[in-house]
Amino acid sequence: MNINPKKINSLIKEIDAILQKIRSEGQKAKPILRQIHPNHKKSALNLIHYHGFRQADLRETQRRLGNLGMTRFANAQGHVEDSLVKVLYLLYRLSDGVPANFTKAQLSTKKSKKLLNSNTAALFGNPSEGRRVRIMVTMPSHAAKDYGLVRKMVQNGMNCARVNCAHDTPEVWKEIITNVKKAAEELGSPVKIAMDLAGPKIRTGAIGILPEIQKALRLYKDDILVITDDSIRGGSAVVNEHGEVVEKAHIPCQFSGIFERVNKGDLLLFDDGKIEGTIQCVAKDKFEVLITRAAEKGTKLKAEKGMNFPNTNLGISGLTSKDKEDLAFIAKHADIVNFSFVNSKKDVQELLSELQRLEVYDKLGIILKIETKFAFDNLEEILLEAMQVKKVGVMIARGDLAVETGWQDIGQVQHELLSICGAAHIPVIWATQVLENLAKNGLPSRSEITDVVTSLKSECVMLNKGPYMEDVLLLLNTILSNMEDFQEKNETMLPKIRKL
Question: Which architecture does CATH list for 216-308?
Fold first, then answer.
């Protein structure tokens, strides 16, 4: 093989410059690292290294390294310094030799993988036999009374039971948890209990004088919709005999603080993005929205549907008064708290403060639900704040996140979330609509199966409710177990080809 010394020396300079840069970033971050839990110190340093590593466009360098048959850093996020050091070492060997003062990395590739595995085990417990990726299942309300259903879930591979505090009551939650623990003990299969804080929900309010009079508004492109406070029930537009609108369609918003935050030109999406609009004008207690996207024959908008403001800083804290009440229950009965709508490190600080008050600071695991554009933009500082405690995870809540970031960007956002969490050795939960057609209708779609295979890049897959949950668990357990030989986190594995 012909080696061009000039090209090798050019690569040495590039890689060495990147290595010195990330080490400098690590030195500057020492005050931050002092606050990190001992279990996460090396991981936090690697996250800081990864941030520095990604500040430049590395694609041309990757191509040149690939031409030499070397790593292209595609899976280096968990061990950035070690990957750079090893490449630099090989380049030196192709050039004038390795310098006497050559310094090894603080964290090896092998140890970085062990850190992720130990962090995952700390949060979710040991994996099921033959399967690395855990399975989290959302508990339906009737799981409180149907012990047989819960027992089958545990029998068919559930590792973590999810209870959502946005629904039901503490009495129902307690009955569900009792059934899960009973089944886990009977079957000898430990199951963690994770409970979701509801978080600040921004939803549409009631429609019509009485609920039975009008169930929904039908909205068309170019309609004007007035958003009011929750004291006024919604109603359709009133049109005179000439077809002129004499009273605009209107619907209340259940979150009163919204009127102080929105501005003309802000984007607004309803019901998981089914309807899209732009704010045209804002008053003290209302604002008008021009509908820019709806179905050709109109789209229905009902009460209790989500409202997303993807480019508006709503200034909402991650913990509501209800969340604080529910957290007291969670501290007594659960292993993990799923923190909804976290947007900044300030939100994490508030949660940690509550955990200290409840004396579960280093006992309760924390899963940060990344659901907004602001959470994605602030992810690194959110993680560094959360890594003050021992057990931390991240949920990629793809429903709200897709609406917030845009359908065209959700693929890239998912990829970056996996990479950043991988750099921090933080376990990731792959959530929202996993095998949803199978769960609801009894038959999976082809894209759902592909989605499950992609979920092998995470440490846990979350399932929502549905009447065919037994079938879902059996299929998911089988796919995840069978695909272990072909995918190890982000790395494609190459077992011997076998015929089906």
Answer: Beta Barrel (2.40)
For the stretch 454-481, pLDDT in tens is 999 999 999 999 999 999 999 999 999 9
In this predicted structure, the answer to whether residue 489 has a pLDDT above a threshold of 80 is no
Q: Which amino acid is at 50?
A: Y
For residues 327, 332, 336 and 342, what is the CA-based torsion angle, rounded to 10 degrees? Answer: 10
- d(CA 442, CA 261) in angstroms, rounded, equals 43
Residue % of the chain over a pLDDT of 90? 74
Phi, psi dihedrals of residue 275, rounded to the nearest 5° = -125, 135
Is the distance from CB of 94 to CB of 11 less than 8 angstroms? Answer: no
Q: Is 433 left (phi over 0), alpha (psi -120 to 50) or beta?
A: left
- The reply to whether domains 115-200+316-489 and 216-308 share a CATH topology is no
* Cβ 394 vs Cβ 370: under 8 Å: yes
Return the ∠ at Cα 455 (arms to 454 and 459), rounded to 5°: 140
Residue with tokens 């199978």: 438
pLDDT value for 318: 67
For residues 493 and 486, the answer to whether their CB atoms sit within 8 Å is: yes
* pLDDT band, residue 497 (cuts 50/70/90): low
- Check: CB of residue 164 under 8 Å from CB of residue 336: no
Distance (Å, rounded) from C-alpha 264 to C-alpha 226?
13
CATH architecture of 115-200+316-489: Alpha-Beta Barrel (3.20)
Give the per-residue pLDDT at 245.
Answer: 86
Q: What DSSP designation does 139 have?
A: P
Give the per-residue pLDDT at 492.
Answer: 60
Burial of 446 (0-12, 13-18, 19+ CB in 10 A): exposed
pTM for this entry: 0.89
Where do the domains of the chain lie?
5-107, 115-200+316-489, 216-308
